[in-house]
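for the recovery benchmark. tokens below, seq after
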């Protein structure tokens, strides 16, 4: 497998989060908001290491953008382990470097799943935020007719991404878009909400923001850790959200 694309832009969002823009040499780069694609770089022995990454941009943004959190920092990175981890290699890459990107984006996790919903919960842990950011960019119009709550849970406040943009969206649509960032192990200086996304689901703040309880017209998307998805779906089922309306993607 050879390189078929170029990293055209790298935005350093903070010391461990980057947004990579990747341009295919040729082929069809189309995708639906919420889908993911495989990306790959070769290690120092020439083996291509590929991983799945959600596309954080909207189709109208042009080349695909990816929001990637460095998984192994130098202090825990062990270069002798095989197969190698991709994120440390990716974080050494520079603008203009060659990369592999699967031309075909895949995944069923798109806005279509909640067609006709009255209320939608987007529930993310960590980089699980990526498909929701893509969906909101591509389908901002949905916020004129549908109430959407975005819950983003991270460990440390450095793990948040796109917070200013999402807060601005909440100000633009004060009756329909509600953003709940929450950190489970933040620094002492952190003044935001502390806990997990499941804490927010249990405390009634979403229903208060929506102005009504959950019901048959409520859909929820979960993207992130299996434990969060298991706990979160059980909570929403107890609160009356039909099981068929719960959509899941493990990252
Ligand atoms: C559908 C989907 C969408 C995703 N979207 C995103 C996204 O938008 N953004 C994002 O950041 N991630 C996303 N992910 C996660 C992503 O695919 C990678 O799993 C993640 O970036 C970590 O990859 P990695 O290779 O660095 O680490 P790992 O996948 O954890 O690497 C595993 C390999 O690293 C080796 N290893 C283990 N410990 C060490 C160590 N200490 N030092 C060195 N090597 C070690 C092991 O041999 C192991 O084989 C998504 C995953 C899925 C399934």
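predicted aa per position
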């Amino acid at each position: 497998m050879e390189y078929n694309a170029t990293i055209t832009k790298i935005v350093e969002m903070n010391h461990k989060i980057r947004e990579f823009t990747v341009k295919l040499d040729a082929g069809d780069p189309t995708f639906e908001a919420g889908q993911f694609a495989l990306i790959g770089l070769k290690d120092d022995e020439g083996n291509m290491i590929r991983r799945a990454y959600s596309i954080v941009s909207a189709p109208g943004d042009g080349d695909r953008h990816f929001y990637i959190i460095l998984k192994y920092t130098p202090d825990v990175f062990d270069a002798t382990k095989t197969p190698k981890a991709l994120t440390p290699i990716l974080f050494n890459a520079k603008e203009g470097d060659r990369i592999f990107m699967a031309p075909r984006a895949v995944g069923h996790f798109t806005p279509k799943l909640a067609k006709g919903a009255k209320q939608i919960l987007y529930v993310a842990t960590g980089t699980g935020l990526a498909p929701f950011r893509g969906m909101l960019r591509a389908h901002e119009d949905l916020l004129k007719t549908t109430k959407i709550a975005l819950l983003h849970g991270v460990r440390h406040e450095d793990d948040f991404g796109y917070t200013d943009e999402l807060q601005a969206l909440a100000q633009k649509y004060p009756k329909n878009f509600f953003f709940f960032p929450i950190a489970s192990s933040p620094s002492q200086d952190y003044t935001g909400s502390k806990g997990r996304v499941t804490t927010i689901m249990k405390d009634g703040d979403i229903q208060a923001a929506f102005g009504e309880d959950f019901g048959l017209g409520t859909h929820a998307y979960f993207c992130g850790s299996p434990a969060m998805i298991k706990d979160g779906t059980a909570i929403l089922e107890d609160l009356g959200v039909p099981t068929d309306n719960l959509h899941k993607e493990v990252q």
